[in-house]
Amino acid sequence: MFFLRNLSHTINLHPSYYGPHMKEFLMRNLHGDVEGTCSGRVGFIICVLTITNISPGKVLPGSGLAEFVVHYQAIVFKPYKGEVVDAIVTSVNQIGFFADVGPLQVFVAQKLMPSDFKFDSNGPCYRGDDQMIEKNGQVRLKIVGLKHQATQINAVGTIKEDYLGQIQ
Amino acid sequence: MADNDFRYTIPAEHLPATIIAVKTSKDKSMSDGDELLEYEYIVKREGYVDEDKTALIAQRGEIRATKDGVVEAIHVVKGKVIDNESTVVIDYKGCDHDTQYEGMCVMCCKTVPMNQESHVMMAHDATSLAVSRSEAKRLEHDTVGRLLNEGKLSLIVDLDQTLIHATVGPAIDEWINSQGGMPQDVKMFPLPDSSTPYYIKLRYDGTAGLAVLDRERFLQKVAAIYELHIYTMGTRNYASAVAKAIDPDGKFFSQRILSRDENLNMTQKSIERLFPCDTSMVVVIDDRADVWQYSPNLVKVHPYEYFVGAGDINAGHLPKQDTVVKSEPAPSTGAAPIADLVKESTEAKSELSDTSAGATEATVETETSTAAPTDATAASSDATAASSEEKTPEEKSEEKKVEVTASTVSAPGTPGKVLKAKAPVMDDNDNELKHILEILETIHEKFYDDREVFKLTKPKKQPDVKEIIRDMKKSVLKGVNIVFSSVIPLGQIPQRADIWRQAESFGAICSTELSAGVTHIVAAKAGTQKVSEARRRRNVRIVRPEWLYHSIGKWQRQNEADYILPELANKSSPRSTTPPHNPEDEKNFGGAEGNGEEDQGGESEDMGTIQTINNNVWEDAAKELEDELGDLDDTDFDSDTSNTQSDASTDRGNRSPLTNLKRTRVFRRSGLSTAVTSGGNDDDDDEDEDSDNGRMNVDMMEGGDGREGFGEDDDDDKGMSTQDSDSDIDDENGSDSQQGYSDATSDASGSAVRQRKRRRRSIGKNGGLEDTVGDDDEDDDDGMDADDEVTMDHTHTMQQSQEDDDDDDDVDFLNDLENDLDAQLKDD
Question: PROSITE patterns from the entry (chain B) (predicted)?
């Protein structure tokens, strides 16, 4: 699910950036630092929308760097258990298949596919009565399990329910 | 799985019970021991409060999960009273965590500690997936069923030096540029995260010169009967890129690619990584047996080396290969050697007459090396054919080396004329894949034959490729009892040597001592104690290590006659009275190769001399040779040559070996069939001869050999040869001179035997060669000839063992050298 979240990020700015364009530097740094990252707590930070506040810089003793705390609003993607998402299949093997939901990798085991799905090593793919799941195909799946690590989120999904499976 | 379905009820002794808390919810994932439900029940107790009163006491009980799993249904709510022991309160599904993704069970989504013991990885491209043994078994069972339906087996193939040869570096860039474009079947690609271009050369599968479509044959044919998996020590990116290059449509390998990134072991490969439980239908082809721990499923492939000196670019982290057997210089990964080689080869080419027009690389190579323009084409084409059939890669590489050395030697003589540098340093004639394909087909066929039997008779054992491979290997060297001599380094434990293990896996028995049962001595050189000892015995064959390598490489016992050890080392041996070389060899030799062989023999003797000779001589010869290149005719083996024998033995020696080599090759083609037949008989005769001549041969080699060689080489020339001047006579010349020796040292009987041999040979020969043969027979003066020849062969072999084996390139090259030598001799 996507959220608009207020987040903060601490930036240490090198003295050479001090000056009238300091704010631009901070913004550039912020975009570079946080966009595309993932934390188990927040989810995937997709895009920084606005910077709500930049704290006054505090020069750190010893190094001369200035520390700014930047408060910003960003779109984050945080998967939830039970969420139904569309995904693109990236790899198929006899245990199941992997699919990408944007930055999130989801694994769907064969046991969590409808019982008519059979593995076919030529392809390789899974064939159901009226569906086929192969690399680069699109699937709709439901996330049934999530594992949040410090910088990584992994998910387990299922297509063994109504209206899940290949997107025709 | 029924035993994972749990239906929890309240124990009978607790009835009636009141539910006081439901501590879980539907679909919740629970761990073993988690509390699911709490209830209260009443017990009566005597004397709990008062001695004579019965107290009713409410006690709490709970239902706990007995296994990790998921709650399927809850049939009660808080406050409900249960008074029936058959009332199910909770349906619960246990989970074995059979499949885990990133340490999370894909069924119950519970985080499970990764357990290497109970879970194995099976997916090619993901280390994050692990399955339990039982699940792996189930999956493999599916796979096996599918493969059986399709009539296939599984085949794990290695990339580097098995299917392709890859290299990187600026030197190769230059080389490519100098070629004016990418050579056929060389592909270049950068890896995603670097700009360094990788060059890979696809291995020919014995169909060199054919259209690209035909060359895909190997994979296609194999893919028809095997499901292919790539297993490489390269990185994922590398593996994918190479797979794309050799299989653009993904029809052979699909996504079944396992790279170093997923292997989790930097030094070893394991079939269990892909097939954890059942390896009875898995065959592996790889150029290294050690990384597979000499797995019984492995069919070892001779390493493919196209970019000379590049080695295996992905083997840096692997333990050093056991290179005892190979004489090749240790492959340095740097590009420098390649550059050097290229340069050298260019030089070599330039000095050679350039008959090569625009043929495929392979042919170009051979042609260029042919000195005589006249018959170059014919000879080379023949040679190519022959070589492609007989030559193993080892030989080739060795030959290559020789070529390079030769070129360096002769370079000073020919500084001026450098021809265009379409220089294929690259060796690309190998038909290893053809052998492998045959082997794989046999394995497949046997497996399914066995399976038919299995279906009919239902024996206890399922067919197993391990056993099929083992049996196939064992039958190759069955009954062979080997002793190694100066093959395995002293410091090494012989039983651990690669060659020792290989020999044993092919059914040979290896011993360290020359005991009674020994049938073969594999010796890198003559003159060792074991070889001397073996000579005294009649029934021990002395062969070069190549015999063993080739037998192992082709899964076919090679004819020992083609791998006789050069004998010259005997001079130093104290026991001059004993026959210096084994008679068998000689005989075999004669038998193996027709008249031409005789020539060779003479030459080989020369070779012996050569060994002692200095390179300087060569250089001198080379200078002069150039001038005379045009004059000489190589076309006629029999007739070519004879120079003055009186010249210093050294000179002859130099030149003669080359001649010999060339001839050997040429003759081989014609004489092969003969060789086979003659091999067996020879032994007896030979032995006799040995005793007779023993010393003789040696002598000949040193002094008299030269003559032989000369006589053979040039008919016309120089009268030094006491014998006939006819072209045919070459052999005879040699023999004559030798005769003298033989007379001195040997009895008449010995010579008689030799004569016999000779005849045999002559019979075998074809065409032009026959002429010679006829002469020989008539002359037969000398049984000695045969002997001599044999000896020579040996010597020759020692020097350049590779060349014996039929390489066309070498032949040509040799021709050139020969010419040079001839010229030099003339001058002398």
Answer: BRCT, FCP1
In Å, how far is B331's CA from the nearest CA of chain A?
37
Range of the domain at A92: 84-166
Residue A119 sits at the chain B interface (C-beta within 8 Å) = yes
Q: How many residues does chain B have?
A: 828
**How many Å lie between the alpha carbon of A93 and the closest alpha carbon of chain B?**
6
Residue B25, class by beta-carbon neighbours within 10 Å (0-12 exposed, 13-18 middle, 19+ buried)? exposed
Chain B residues touching residue A109 (CB < 8 angstroms): 99, 101, 106-107
**∠ Cα B377 B380 B385 (to 5°):** 125
Rounded to a whole number of angstroms, the distance from the CA of A123 to the nearest CA of chain B is 7
Helix (H) or strand (E) holding B157: strand B153-157
Is residue A54 classed as helix, strand or coil in its secondary structure?
strand
Per-residue model confidence as pLDDT tens digits over B232-284:
888 888 888 888 888 888 788 888 888 888 887 778 888 888 888 888 889 99
SS3 for A158?
strand
Task: Please report residues of A whose CB lies closer than 8 A to that of B105.
Answer: 145
Domain B477-558 belongs to what topology? Rossmann fold (3.40.50)
Based on the fold, state whether residues A53 and A88 are members of the same structural domain.
Answer: no
Burial class (CB in 10 A: 0-12, 13-18, 19+), A65: middle
Rounded CA separation B609/B823 (Å): 19
Both A37 and A99 in a single domain?
no
- Residues A89 and A65 occupy one common structural domain: no
Cβ contact (<8 Å) for A111 and B102? no
**Interchain contact, B123 vs A93, CB within 8 Å:** yes
Please check whether residue B637 is in contact with residue B663, taking contact to mean a CB–CB distance below 8 angstroms. Answer: yes
- Per DSSP, B192 falls in state T
Tokens matching residue B790: 């044999």
A chain contacts of residue B106, beta-carbon cutoff 8 Å: 96, 107-109, 111-112, 145, 156
Number of domains in chain A: 2
Query: Is the backbone of residue B396 left (phi > 0), alpha (psi -120 to 50) or beta?
Result: alpha
Are A68 and A107 in a shared domain?
Answer: no
What is the residue-wise DSSP string for B696-743? HHHHIIIIIHHHHHHHHHBSSS-TT-SS--SSTTHHHHHHHHHHHHHH
- The ipTM value here is 0.85
A25 and A89 housed in the same domain: no
Beta strands in B315-364 (DSSP E): none
Look up the CATH number of the domain holding residue A126: 2.40.50.140
Task: List CB contacts (< 8 A) between B104 and chain A.
Answer: 145, 147, 154, 156
Min Cα–Cα distance to chain A from B150, Å: 11
Residues in chain B predicted with pLDDT less than 50, given as ranges, are: 1, 208-213, 322-427, 568-613, 630-753, 757, 760-807
Domain B151-334+431-476, CATH 3.40.50.620 — does that match?
no
Of B99, B146, B227, the CB nearest to A109: B99
A21 and A45 in a common domain: yes
CATH no. for residue A32?
A: 3.30.1490.120
- The alpha helices in B199-329, defined as continuous H runs, are 212-215, 217-225, 236-246, 260-263
Q: Give CA–CA dist B141/A114, Å, rounded.
A: 20
Q: Which CATH class is domain B2-95?
A: mainly beta
Contact B99 A154 (CB under 8 A): no
- B477-529, pLDDT tens digit by residue? 888 888 888 888 888 888 888 788 878 888 888 888 877 788 888 887 777 77
Chain A within 8 Å of B131 (Cβ-Cβ)? yes
Question: Are the CB atoms for B73 and B26 separated by under 8 Å?
Answer: yes
Where exactly are the structural domains of chain B?
2-95, 97-150, 151-334+431-476, 477-558
* DSSP bridge pairs for A146: A155
Q: A72 with A17, same domain?
A: yes
